[in-house]
Amino acid sequence: MQSHQFSTIPADGVDVFYRYAGPVDAPVILLLHGFPSSSHQFQNFIPYLAYHNYRVLAPDYPGFGFTVVPAERKYIYTFDNLSLTIAAFLDALHIQQFALFIFDYGAPIGLRIALDRPDAITAIISQNGNMYEEGLGETWGPMKKYWATDSAEDRAIIRARILSPERTIWQYTAGSPTGEKGVPPESYTLDLALMEREGNREIQLDLFRDYRTNVEMYPRFQAYLRERRPRALAVWGREDRSFVPAGAEAFRRDLENVEVGFVDAGHWALEERGEEVGGQVVEFLGRVLGSSKSGL
């Protein structure tokens, strides 16, 4: 099985780092990562999809991974702006149609792009990528308080609770049937190292605060599903503590043809159950987009 390559490309005044693989004339799959990770989380998934004859693109957002934001750009870290940068990244590569694979932060970023470019979306795969209030687990309590107050005190509480090494490891392992044994340690170790960069924690806190705008946009995302009726697959780790299974089931309310499946995993189902998740994704894409190897 082939590996993947990486590169950078200027887009929206930012040097966007991305990983890629697959034939350039094949159907495009855009992989959108979550917090606190980067395209690194897809390092095994990218060659798997490319093997099945898809062109795979996985960018790092500004503030994540190896994407570089020049100081003179004076970038404001909001989900609106992250979406604009990823849209500019697609334009820089002349990508006009693509399937969305949305995970965690990738959901509000990808769905903003879908609202702006509905005809570009060939399919949507949600792996624990939420767009329903009932999908928000109890762990969101402190974050909701921060949204309401925007106080320095609550910002400090969120910094201590969520941006700690212990919490990052917990995000990867909570709900996993095998605990830390099921998740490669290099995943969260890289995330922790990148968060140590000067100013990065403040970037993450700004995005935590802005996450409230994603919840405010849930009705628009849901209306998009009802009106555009994209082919969709929701495959979730059923033990996710952040985005609970009700968020996957809620897709049925707005999209009657959605396919919903669960695997025995937590939030990072692709890390823990890569073959199982990958199999469901490739089988779905084979039916929706077609591929000469989709049945393998």
UniProtKB/TrEMBL annotation:
It holds the Pfam family Abhydrolase_1. GO terms for molecular function: epoxide hydrolase activity. Gene3D superfamilies: alpha/beta hydrolase. Residues 27-272 form the AB hydrolase-1 domain. InterPro entries: AB_hydrolase_1, AB_hydrolase_fold, Epox_hydrolase-like, Haloalkane_dehalogenase. The keyword Hydrolase applies. Keywords: Hydrolase. This is Alpha/beta hydrolase fold protein. It comes from Mollisia scopiformis (Conifer needle endophyte fungus).
